[in-house]
Amino acid sequence: MKVAIVHELLTMRGGAERVLRILGDMFPNAPIYTLLYNEEKLGDWFPRNRIKTSYLQNKIFPTPYPLLPTPYRYNHHLYLPHFPKAVESWDFHDFDLVISTSSAFAHGIITNGKPKHLSYIHSPARYLWDRTHDVLDRADKGILGPIKRKYLERTFHKLRIWDSEAAARPDKLLSASKEVQRRVELYWRRDSEVVYPPIDDSWLENKIKNLELRIKNYYLIASTLVPYKKIELAIEACNKDGRALKIVGEGPDKKRLQSLAGPTIEFLGYVPHEELKDLYTNAKAIIFPGLEDFGLVPVESMACGTPVVAYAKGGALETITEDTGVLFSDQTPDSLTQALEKVEQKRFDANVLHAQAEKFSRKQFEEGIRRAIYEI
Q1: Which DSSP string corresponds to 310-376?
Q2: Neighbour tally for 171: CB within 10 Å
Q3: Tens of pLDDT along 251-278?
Q4: What CATH number labels 3-124+167-198+362-375?
Q5: Domain 201-360 sits in CATH 3.40.50.2000
């Protein structure tokens, strides 16, 4: 069976790219199609000889956008109006199966009826649907705000129409969580099956250390630094009571978050896998303050025997139990502070935490993918 894999953007590391790595391992001969590819950041995960980029990378915008400073060249917002045409330009007639992993556009490929198309949905595009008004409000700020807002309003309207029509193209949809499944039905009027994304097996190979021997003098966030992650809630809560907080990750919101941080907040940037394991293992708890579709970080934390403090909506409701963490009901510093106080008073069994993480293993993910392929 000739298989191709499609993934929107290979410009930064995240949960979607970890899922793609597993699909790449499952089908080692499958080429990976992507709209934009940043070899400097992802070449070790996805070598260039497997990558097929869209015309946006090389023809219309050489290198792309050569006159822009490097940090802006892979800013996907610059390309939004071009993405539908780009994903529709790929020809898959030589393949038997195409697997797309989509957070916005990849589900819209055209297969012309020959290869079957299985699409794994991380989420319908958030900025086109449930986060549209938040994005527009942020764009409205500054001298050029009204112009940017008008441009985005027109662009988003056209993309929503395309998105709704393109959602009918895959032969089968898989959703990353029940929260995503709900939105797929709401926005696209399509049924889907839930196959939870997995954590890497290396997390589950961890030896659970005695909780009493851990350092446990800090809280931890591991996240891309973008506004919707609500990391400022954790910063404000920890500033207020002088709690130590370590923040792992990079992103466009880093400078703003650093400006909010007090002396007990530490930004660590990108941290290699083994070091991140140690950070998880020795933290009091992981703070997960945003509304997420699923969220691999809480599961990785539980695999290390560390509880989670999370906002009580979205994917966190599907992974965190009373025995593995504390949920807070409002996205406010006060509500989060109350949850931190609760987690400090509770005792958690590291083996129970680890057992919960095992429910989201690579094995269950691969079985779900193979079952879906068999069905279509």
Answers
A1: EESSTTHHHH--TTTEEEESSSSHHHHHHHHHHHHH----HHHHHHHHGGG-HHHHHHHHHHHHHH-
A2: 16
A3: 889 999 999 999 999 999 989 888 998 8
A4: 3.40.50
A5: yes
